[in-house]
Amino acid sequence: MSIVVRDVREHELDSVLALNNAAGPAILPLDLTRLRAFYESAEYFRVAERDGNLTGFLIGVGHASQHDSSNFSWFRERYSNFFYIDRIVVASRRRGGGVGRAFYADAQSYAELRYSQMACEVFLDGANDPVLLFHGTFGFHEVGQNVMPETGTRAAMLMKDLESYAWINETYGDALPRLPWVRRPRTVAGSASYLEKQTGTAP
Fold first, then answer.
1. Comparing C-alpha atoms, which of 91, 101, 155 is closest to residue 128?
2. What is the residue-wise DSSP string for 49-106?
3. Domain 3-184 carries which CATH code?
């Protein structure tokens, strides 16, 4: 069956937490409080379903976020306009089945309407060559390294230019057309969207 990527639902947070904490050393552990904070603030928090089962999730924020990650801060000190992938997790039994690529395609289709670059990191402690290769085939390149002060973990800092953004921004600015496929930043419990809360404007 096909992969379905959609916004997370509140009742799925326990399942998302279990996926995160079963992912191994390539992903930092979470507790429910931290995950709920993402649910309440992250402008992109989507899950993947395959055969009716939750198979992964991706969380992303824009450069205006108040996100407290040291890796996010590293990017914000050096770049002014980017969409940051905080974490992507795919269930071990589904790795290699296209879920990761479906997530990145969906995240890029969202980000390139609003940001000039995508940013993420890959931990270098451990056997992460397959993860680096995956990102390389998707157009990311290393722009530096960062040692996370909270864990001592070294990460390769990766960026990808979103070439469509310049034309989209020049043509539409902040007034993106209200088309069904131009997905707006997610809302939580009827609140204002993430971008509206951060910048006072709607996309």
1. 155
2. EETTEEEEEEEEEETT-----HHHHHHHHH-SS-EEEEEEEE-GGGTTTTHHHHHHHH
3. 3.40.630.30
Whole-number Å distance between alpha carbons of 115 and 166: 9
Q: How many Cβ atoms sit within 10 Å of the Cβ of residue 142? A: 14
* Token pair belonging to 37: 């904070």
Q: Which of 10, 114, 23 is nearest to 60 (CA)?
A: 114
**pLDDT of 35:** 95
**Model confidence over 116-132: pLDDT tens digits?**
999 999 999 776 788 89
- Looking at this protein, which amino acid is placed at residue 116? S
Residue that has been written with the tokens 């940013």 in this structure: 119
Q: How far apart are CA 107 and CA 17, in angstroms?
A: 20
